Amino acid sequence: MRIVTATAVALALAGQAAPAATAHQPTIDGIWRMDGYGTVLSIRNGTFQEYQTTAVSCLQGDSAQRTGPSTYTMADGTVLTVRTQGGRDRGSLRADGSVGDRNLRRIPELPDACTSPAPKGPLAAFDVFWQSFEENYPFFSAKGIDWHAVRDQYRPLVHAGTTRDELYAVFSEMVKPLHDAHVAVQDGDRVFAQVRPGTVLPTGELDTKVKKFIVARDLKNARNLQDFAHGRITYADLPGGQGYVRISGFGGYVGDGAPYAAQLAELDRALDTVLSQERTQRLKGLIIDLRINGGGSDALGIHLAERLTDASYLAYSKRARNDPADPTRHTRPQPAYVTPAQGPRYTGPVAVLTGGSTVSAGETFTQALMDRPGKTVRIGQPTQGVFSDVMSRKFPNGMSAWLPNEEFLTRSGRTFDGTGIPPHLKEPVFTKEEFDNERDSAFDRALNVLRTYGGAAG
Description:
The protein is an alpha+beta fold. It has eleven helices and 22 strands. The model is unreliable at about 1-25 (pLDDT under 50).
């Protein structure tokens, strides 16, 4: 699951009775502990309830209601699939739009902390906040952060009389040195979050500015300029026989709150036009512009990659922290593969444009193209450096935080968290100088590279 907001329990299919469990599969009702993720699940009588656990706490998280065989739907529309595996005591959970399953183990009952009143007050909130990062955040060592020293510095500042504003400020200061775009502190409508130094958040305002610039400069002589998916995808045929596709996110294709199935259908509608049989045969190269991409669904990125290959290959493997006391221990890496899609596919040269505003699912898609068969070159600047799904953690005072706990590994076991995926060819990306001089160096470099490759796609 990506960043999710805890909401009240609501049936996704209003007025529809929850289906009974299928007879041939052991019941999934019961209490389950998730490998990694600091989570216990209670599944009973058609209701799915998450409990967020640490060594010092257990707080209720998100809820969902059964809306189909083995499926539960949250109030925000996220569909969860829960199944037993190889018997009654092992199971798996998958959230639509995410890549990979989360493994479950049946336990006899809820932990004692989940059935006892939660501690109250600012100090209790501080302890749950610190412990949530201590047990789940994977990158303290890589970022040179001594999280225990952070506790020693800030816990003495918190006491029974600490105000909400003061505590919000303390939490924000604690995570500020992480410079992690997948870390945030939330209190009602206010959110503290930040990107890697030297990069810019991919806001809607920036996206609009850049899109206008590209259409006026790079696509002024293009043909078949079209927008798809709520404006998130733009395609144009370039004068030299190359194609250009701009993707500003892997979601939001059919408006806010639409389920993953609707997002996937809209992506397919766009790709059926963009990568038609006629076009895939004549294209001499394809520019994929991800320089302003705010992320979304990793699974949609894999789906697009499947239109760009004739051979299966490993996109990446995904693992999560799995020992609260040992940050070097992880769940077993789950491989995610790119398999050729049915129908027309483009397999010729690809130039991928990236920058610091290429974030999250924009980065996992970039990673999914690293071992793509055929010529694939990255041009621009390193991506933001955040790949993990995002955990949403609640605290006793009603505040919450978002944090990552996963790593996306290349075939050789490398990760790009923090640094981002580097380009093969460095070029400035939407700097003030580029705008002022009406230059787009990365786009121009991509065109030149594709022209040197030459030849039609195979």
